[in-house]
Amino acid sequence: MLAQFVDIHGAAKTKSVPVSGLKAVAEEGAGFAGFAIWGMGMEPHGPDFMARGDFHADAGALAAGLRPRGVHRSCQRPALALRHRYVLQQQVARLSERGWTLNTGLEPEFSLFRRDADGKLCSVDASDKLEPCYDYKGLSRSRAFLELTESLQPVGFDIYQIDHEDACGQFEINYTYSDAMESADRFTFFRMAAGEIANDLGMICSFMPKPDPRRAGNGMHFHLSIASAGNSNLFHDASDPSGMGLSKIAYHFLAGLLAHGPALCAFAAPTVNSYKRLVVGRSLSGRPGRRRSLPGDNNRSAMRVSMASPDAAIRSPRSCLPSAGAALASGSPRRDADARLRYAVRCRCVRRRAVPLAGASMERSRARSQARPATHC
């Protein structure tokens, strides 16, 4: 079994523990040198960081499909204020007091590479070079790797879509939304599983935001929605006078994202490489360079509303990158409980069925959210 947590970059940090050591890990914890972990804020002379906590068993095996008879036990005890899960748990608890649940749907992009005879990295498919986006051949020739879906589905991933993205050897996998904590856990496991399967096939799977300056970078859409205790979408209001179908809570949510967007980039885009994606006006960036984060009906804008029947919600593209820790990005603390957390996302409670947004309606909603007092954000 693994005693595991993630650093500020979302990378899994683990110690392998024999089953016979399970009790010791639960009671005493597995020790880590805190200063060696990104984002812990510890100095070399500080104490060890002990990973221990309560145990929760999932019905599905963490490694089902990868390793027979695997068992998933997630350790979690809110103790360290800098721990990602603790940050998210605090925010989830604030919503729970109102009977609300934050649902998130993640759409990770990643790139596949291999090493040539000289040891240099190159695209996994040498023929995948000209206009590869949504290309059948590029998708088909990587089908051995994309069979990782057979490993993910038995552990609760409802994968409904896979596509080839803009860059050579670049793909996106979409799976159904869940509550914020489960989504964060799933994304952490997805990165681990994708890396291991790629390694078994002689490939390298990279979630790096900009692995190649000549090609499109990897992004990750977030879909966000808040559900009531009765599982209705609190972002929806059919009587919205702007015609957007959004509730006051949804507008406050958008305003909060706009107000806190620049600061939230510290969590959503935590590396220098993240900002190498800012190539103005081209798909090479995954998101065009802008001085400000604004909503709009442009597919590259900071936030959008995905119209999908009465469950329409808010979407904002690629400011959140797969190099980010999903739990920390999901649980970035806010001073206001109205809109709650986070940046860079498409929110939804159901799978997206895209309907073009009226430009005038979006302009009205932008003007309205900009006109709201700061106390609403």
TrEMBL record:
- InterPro entries in the cross-refs: Gln_synt_N_sf (IPR036651), Gln_synth/guanido_kin_cat_dom (IPR014746), Gln_synth_cat_dom (IPR008146)
One GO MF annotation is: glutamine synthetase activity
Region Disordered: start and end of each range?
A: 286-311
Key word Ligase present in the record? yes
Which residues belong to any copy of the GS catalytic domain?
A: 84-377
Keywords, ordered alphabetically: Ligase
Q: Does the keyword tRNA-binding apply?
A: no
Looking up SMART domains in the UniProt record yields:
Gln-synt_C
EC numbers, comma separated? 6.3.1.2
Give the enzyme class.
ligase
Supply one GO BP term: glutamine biosynthetic process
- Which family, according to UniProt? Belongs to the glutamine synthetase family.
This protein is called Glutamine synthetase III
What organism does the record attribute this protein to? Ectopseudomonas oleovorans
